[in-house]
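FORM 7B - TANDEM STRUCTURE REPORT

SECTION 1: FIRST PROTEIN
SEQUENCE AND TOKENS:
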Amino acid sequence: MPPDLPQLVVAVLGAWGLAVIVKSAAALRAGRGYTFAQWDGGALRAGHALTRRGTQIKLVLGAIAALLGTGWLAGLLPVTVAFYATLANLVASVISSYVNAERS
């Protein structure tokens, strides 16, 4: 693994977490579920929506990703800890997006 890869992953997913926070909060405020776009769900999830509970979980997981990125940037977390915690958070986010999908 290239030595800069963990830092890049933590930084990019930290920024992604901030965007997810904004999108999830807007969806909850509007009283609707989180609807995936190309940037956050890829081709497989684009257009699919989450339940309200799924949107709440997405908000928390986005906040965790943002906190991990911020913690690493502030020097509070070693890059390896932030990297593996971010990957675990990403896996939890993917699993949650399938478990909490709206049934059509």
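SECTION 2: SECOND PROTEIN
SEQUENCE AND TOKENS:
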Amino acid sequence: MGGGRDDATAYVTVVDEQAEVSREQAPWYGESGSEEFWKPAIDGLLEIIDDRGWDRDTVMIVGAHDRKPRTATLEFFADIAPGMKWASVSHARGYRPRDGELTVDGLEVGYHAYPWQADMRIPDRGIIGGWDGEFLQTTLARFHFHSFSARRRIPATYRALISNAISPNRNRRFRGVSRFQLDYWPVPRDGGGFRRLLNMSGWVNLMRNHEFLLAPGPDGPEPTVSFLQLREGAQETEARLAIETVLADEELQARLDDDLLDEAYDVLTEHARLIRSGSMVWQGYVSLPWREHARRLFDTAGRVEEAVDR
């Protein structure tokens, strides 16, 4: 469910059993008939979550985008969905969790996406971290970080994106990228023209990402070079985390001999320098030793995993 405000009318995206998408009106929260409309929708969603064995904490109310909901809206959802938290997207630097919790003026946030790009911190013989944050907080990958211009766009952006997004930054501990907005992919509309695959909204900072990651193919979207770089970066991040989770555990770390321990710390520092430099310098994708580092990173991760028998 998504929507906007226009003369006290909420607009929602409806996907039927045949996967047909439509945009319909619904009563605004707190207006006449709103509880009868929204409560069955939320209850039905929770039934699906329960049937699949998922945690109900994964269901959140989305809507706090650079602004806080009205008190009446907060009270409305507290009544029909007690205990359900909010998912927030906000530039506000005051959105900083404490002890794994984030509450802002009565808004209980369960997940926060921060629309600023994370920059890799270079550790001094230590783990990079980020993944160990208690609160679920991510960065939001927006198209203008990658630029329309090939002259200005840094080629290693996507190679570095995932590892950059799992790191401490600006006193935050980021745990990944929030979304890539592929739900904006255009599909043919009956009678001509195109419509977006699922998302009916028009946030321009999000709706252009698919142009960097996907291209039209004979049978649907095909991955671009940027998408393949993104996948390479995700695989390298998995190897990085395989090493870091061992170093963060005293019992597991004790199983590494001194040479392998030094190698593990050294390769993490090299990884951080490569990611930071490659995502900031245009010529970094051709002048930095990506292939050699990837070989060393995967080799070290494999040896660490073997040493701890994991």
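SECTION 3: OBSERVATIONS ON SECOND PROTEIN
Residues 1-7 have pLDDT under 50 and may be disordered.
Residues 225-247 form the longest helix (23 residues).

SECTION 4: SIGNATURE
Preparer initials: ____
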